[in-house]
Amino acid sequence: MPKTLADIKKSLDCNLGKRLRLKANGGRKKTVECDGVLSDTYHAVFVVELDQEDNACKRVSYSYTDILTEAVEITFLDDVQVAIAK
Fold this sequence. Notes:
Blueprint: H1 5-13, E1 19-27, E2 30-41, E3 45-50, E4 59-63, H2 64-68, E5 72-76, H3 79-85
Antiparallel strand pairs: 1-2, 1-5, 2-3, 3-4
Organism: Ureibacillus sinduriensis BLB-1 = JCM 15800
Protein name: ABC transporter permease
InterPro entries: Protein_Veg
């Protein structure tokens, strides 16, 4: 991923609407992994709409700083990976 907050935001702006896998620090040595769609980017945060069958909440938001500090890791899924997973 890019090294500045502005570069991270630009990179996410280019991938709006794409499916992704989100790996986030859940606290106390726990890692949370979710699949969803990048729905919105704002000045300081981005929003991910999560798949309903796997998660209790509909959407989550994280700041670009979370990506910079590697508290959140995002992997964009291309159509080939999605087809294999189904």
